[in-house]
Amino acid sequence: MQEDYDAHEALVRELNDPALRTEYARAFDNYRTGFVANVFGWLLVSSGTLVYGKYPCYAKFKAIEVIARIPYQSWEVASYTLLTGFYANEQRAIELTKTSAFSRHAQDNETMHVVVLSQIVKKLRCEGFFRHVLIPLLFAFFYFWTVYVLYMLSRKSALELNYLFENHAYHQYEQFLIQDGERLRDTAIMSDFLVHYGRNPRNEYEFFESVRNDELIHRNRSIRELQARLK
Hints:
Elements: H1 2-14, H2 18-29, H3 35-52, H4 58-68, H5 70-83, H6 90-124, H7 129-153, H8 155-185, H9 192-197, H10 204-230
Helix pairs in contact: 1-10, 2-10, 3-8, 4-6, 4-7, 5-6, 5-7, 6-10, 7-8, 8-10
């Protein structure tokens, strides 16, 4: 797990370089998802836009991150469920435990996002209980079981759905950095959880820059996990 964390953090720093980020993103920018993922992805993004608006903001990001953790938790539970029936199949067991390792690291990373964003939103008092607390929690409950069933029936669709959601999150953070970059550079950030996690951004711009890179990595990794299973 430490090796995965170190490799991820090194890549996050590398992706601050626009040329390297463009090259890294290009590998899957034009990936075509299947029908099932497209339908669920459209519902997911459209519902978020309807409730939280089209443009990025702190409170919308908090809601996004509450939901972003869910697929990784659901995949891990589904993987262990499947392992119950495949203990005797070593290759299948290895495949499932690799997914579990990726899921654990990704959900820890997304948890960091939501904890830090929750503190920012709390400080700014820019959230409402119904829209930014209750709706994400209720949505997360149903999303967990939807992804769980989808993963059990079609891992391809489950991974592609995550690709679509993470792609949306990546572009939202990129837009936010362009839209509010100057202000974010002048806004200090202090978080005990960030220190605990191992990141030390000097300002909000560096924090959101790293979160944008996290989402891009998760987007690409979802398809790489899928392609590894097709080999």
